[in-house]
Write a structure and sequence with these properties.
The structure is a homodimer of 224-residue chains.
Chain A lengths: L19 H10 L8 E2 L1 H7 L4 H14 L2 E4 L3 E4 L4 H25 L2 H15 L3 H16 L5 H18 L6 H19 L3 H29 L1
Antiparallel strand pairs in A: 1-3, 2-3
Helix pairs in contact in A: 1-3, 2-3, 4-7, 4-9, 5-6, 5-8, 6-7, 8-9
Chain B binds a DNA duplex (30 and 30 nucleotides) through helix 3.
DNA sequence: GTTTGAAAGATTACACATAATTAATATTGG
DNA sequence: CCAATATTAATTATGTGTAATCTTTCAAAC
């Protein structure tokens, strides 16, 4: 097990590092392996410089988390992420995010808000790929300390699926600008500690994101 | 792999059958293994009449699903289900159930409602243990066909954790009666296809259940 | 074009070797 | 003599190789 990943690990959302589990999940999140791809144990063992069992165990864990689908005697594949998955994930996020955010509005510290502002500043000069990472960091920061860590984990997993689906689709500048503006509004409402306002912006933010991606991915679905 | 379980598998909530995964999960849900218990691979392999590797893989899958916690070089344990877990699980259910139920109210068929009524009838003469099973079946029936299978799976998992926590605590008759009444109200509101009414009863139903168990399990926590 | 059958490839389960942890025992200091 | 620590023994986890079984693939025959 002396494999070194070229690409950096999707920082905040993948806890464990330097494990086969993390490598595979990272490769799924970065669309190195895409929806439906076969995950052959021998190939993976070779790629990550280890034997079959550790790979099988990593795949089983990923199966439990929903990223991989295993058919008996037929092997593992990256789970099918299609249009319906996008809808499902967004609807779950739409339940979770207001719930997680509400706590943050009331309990966050000044330093949290300053960190968010720092991220916002970085966003303004970020490229497409950097932006996605900053966006993830922004929301991760707001949720990660929530008392309901089960819910946080749920959010994390759904967010990773989203990243996997979006990895090879570019974000257009109009949407980035709109998204930055929404983040700014969130921070502003946070300063006032106005729960209703924050949740309002959040709902709009998720809704817009959902609309954007569903439009995009429905097209790419129609093509393939 | 020729192990035969004495106790029947928690029927609807555990899909796979006759697998080590299902056996272990079933034993967790029935509190054969309780929160914090060490899950030693060799022991489990012996118990379920198989070798170590399949056990390890089952444990990894259960880890991914949150039922088992694995520490490097130190092995697997049943995840810690304590008072905070109860709160977390109930809050997640409180988000999920209205979401899942809303669809059912609008889309369910007459035969679904008849099945629910049949379950209700059985509830009225059920013992404590049977009641819990019927209650699970009731809600499973309402959710299992929802278009968002990711959400359904989420509900399933959280419900299993609840079952694991409640397995060795008895349900008192007052709560059973109250619970039956709530189910009756749900069916009634379903007949009218009145979303608001159903969600109202549901919120109360979950709330009451949460109150009941938190009171009970906080006591058992204080004792231990 | 469909079916059949053989060969290659992969999955699964098992046994073994090694490394780490846990426990049990002995030793030391107060 | 007791408590805390150190040492040793047992247990357990982890990773590798291998054999058997099942799938898939590909080519030949119908």
């Amino acid at each position: 097990m002396s494999y070194v990943e070229e690409q950096s690990v999707i920082s905040p959302l993948i806890n464990e590092e330097s494990t086969i589990y993390a490598y595979i999940l990272n490769d799924i999140a970065n669309a190195v392996f895409v929806s439906g791809d076969r995950l052959v144990t021998t190939k993976l063992a070779e790629k990550y410089q280890t034997s079959i069992n550790p790979v099988r165990e990593a795949l089983k864990q990923l199966q439990g988390e929903g990223f991989v689908t295993v058919s008996p005697n037929s092997g593992a594949r990256v789970s099918i992420f299609e249009y319906n998955t996008l809808r499902d994930v967004f609807e779950i996020l739409q339940l979770l995010e207001p719930y997680l955010m509400e706590w943050f509005v009331e309990e966050h510290l000044l330093e949290d808000r300053l960190e968010l502002k720092a991220l916002l500043t970085k966003m303004e000069t970020a490229t497409d790929l950097e932006y996605r990472n900053l966006d993830t960091q922004f929301h991760w920061l707001t949720y990660k300390n929530h008392y309901n860590q089960k819910a946080v984990d749920l959010w994390r997993r759904n967010r990773l699926i989203l990243l996997a689906m979006q990895a090879n689709v570019k974000l257009n500048t109009t949407r980035i600008k709109q998204s930055i503006e929404e983040h700014r509004e969130i921070i502003h409402a946070l300063e006032e500690r106005d729960v209703t306002a924050v949740l309002g912006v959040m709902a709009r933010h998720i809704g817009n994101s959902g609309k954007y991606w569903s439009r995009y991915l429905s097209v790419s679905n129609r093509i393939s």
